Amino acid sequence: MSQSKDKETRRAEAQAEREAKDRAEAARAQRGKRLWMLGGLVLIAAAVVVAIVVATGGGEKKVDTGKAPAGVTDTATLLAGIPQQANVLGQPNAPVTLVEYADLKCPICQQYSSSAFPQLVQRYVRTGKVRMVFRAQHFVGEQENPGDSLSAAQMALAAGKQNKQWNFTDLFYANQQDETTRYATPGFLRFIGSGVPGLNVDAALAQRKSPAVSGALARDDAAFRAAGFTGTPSFQLGKRGGALQPLNVQSFDVASFSGPIDQLLRS
Amino acid sequence: MSDRRLRGAIALLGLIGVGIAGYLTWVHYAGDRPLCLAGGGCEKVQTSEWAKLAGVPVALIGLIGYLAILGSLLVRGEAGKLLGAGLALIGFAFSAYLTYRELFTIDAICQWCVASAVVMTLIAITAVWRLLRIDSAEVEAPLGAETGGAVS
To answer: A23 and B141: CB-CB below 8 Å?
Structure first.
């Protein structure tokens, strides 16, 4: 009796052992299969990301300088018929002045240029209520590519000598490149200039290192420092003949500018 | 750790990711500057060339990715685990690429992007853990009846 019970227990134990062994083996096999799957997933993930990056050019905008710059018509339409005098856009006797300190290689300045700027021009500059003043800065990407931002600023001021500075800057922003690369080469500046109607590009290129341009740039730098600004874009707003006050905007929607401008126009 | 807990952890991390990517997507389309706790890195990164891929904001791509990972949790069995791990690994690789761009090309750090990269890394680790973890119910399958792969 007890012998048969022992036999039964041993059989049960052996079966349990066998089952545990089978389970362990199945688990091992399953884990091996999953590891292969994981390897496959890693390869797929790497391939997907590489494909995305390559297909989109790694986010970099490529400019074909053989074609016309982007936004030529938009810029020409936006600024057509508005008076320009050097770095001033709008009627000289407009009741309010908006000063913009900007770097042509600054992507945030580009954001302003493509968002609030066109609406402000239509609403306030074209109607003679606001005159805009551009004060060129040149420090973005200077560590990596010394002189590149300066080169862009010089060309903008040189275009200003032909009263085309606002066309040049707006078009430059529309074709702005990666700020960490050197791209404001004479070829690129000529490319942008070619999209500005009435601009003598050769003359502007020749003038960009003239004492007149250097002087204007020095004045813009001094005004920037005097205002206590440290970054671009920075803005000042004031009534004609009155003191300019810093305008701190939280976003580049037109309301951030129209509120203070309307207030000044009413006062 | 049970599969149920791992799924819960991925769901929680996924929701945090949706919050971060959703905020950055909203900021992008509203034309606002992202709230940055220190420095101006967020704005620099958000307005850089690498903030968009083929015209699509990377914040929106991230939002879609997090939602897809959350969606994968609804798929039961091995297929769900495989899908979740695959999406998380793609998200991790993409985050790694963007972090590389921040550090070595844009030269600025966006705290929201770093937070998203950390969340995506944790999701990838958890999803891989979940994929490699073998349930006792799953090893019963080869021995006897099909479990249908429903594990919790």
So the answer is: no
